[in-house]
Design goal:
mainly alpha, two-stranded antiparallel sheet
């Protein structure tokens, strides 16, 4: 019987020659966010199969987008500088105020309808806040050299 050999995450290869390291995880997550932001956004809804009567939930693509940005922010958090953390906290405060405003308007002791104008406006505004956070995280990654590319100048167009 062979002895088991432990291979740490830093040494483990995932796809061919690519290493599974922090940079790789961040870049893969960026690809996912870019893909999510490149499609038409629509609210979540349920579809009933007429043959089987089984209901299937189609996720809200906006929620998938902002959840992906939250996850990226979470994995980057230990590496962020104080300036970025302060900016993120401001955005989180805005998001909380937005939620409280939405919740107050829709509460009124009645059940909150699944889909209504207030709900859609809230989600659309939340997307804007999450986009600001995503841009902030991208600026930080650029500053740290994650997007190493040849400098783009006007001379390149000639």
């Amino acid at each position: 019987m062979e002895d088991s050999i432990y291979v740490g995450a830093e040494e483990q290869t995932s796809f061919g020659e690519e290493k599974l390291d922090f940079r790789f995880i961040v870049m893969e997550h960026l690809r996912r966010i870019i893909k999510l932001s490149s499609v038409e956004w629509k609210g979540g809804y349920e579809v009933t199969n007429p043959r089987t009567g089984i209901e299937t939930y189609i996720p809200d693509t906006r929620a998938e987008y902002w959840n992906a940005i939250n996850a990226l922010s979470d994995i980057m958090n230990p590496h962020l500088d104080n300036k970025i953390i302060e900016e993120e906290e401001k955005l989180n405060k805005e998001e909380k105020e937005l939620f409280n405003e939405w919740h107050t308007r829709t509460k009124e002791g009645l059940p909150i309808p699944k889909y209504n104008d207030a709900d859609e406006k809230y989600k659309d505004k939340k997307v804007i806040l999450k986009r600001k956070l995503f841009r902030l995280l991208c600026k930080f990654l650029k500053k740290k050299g994650y997007f190493k590319v040849k400098e783009i100048t006007d001379e390149d167009d000639e």
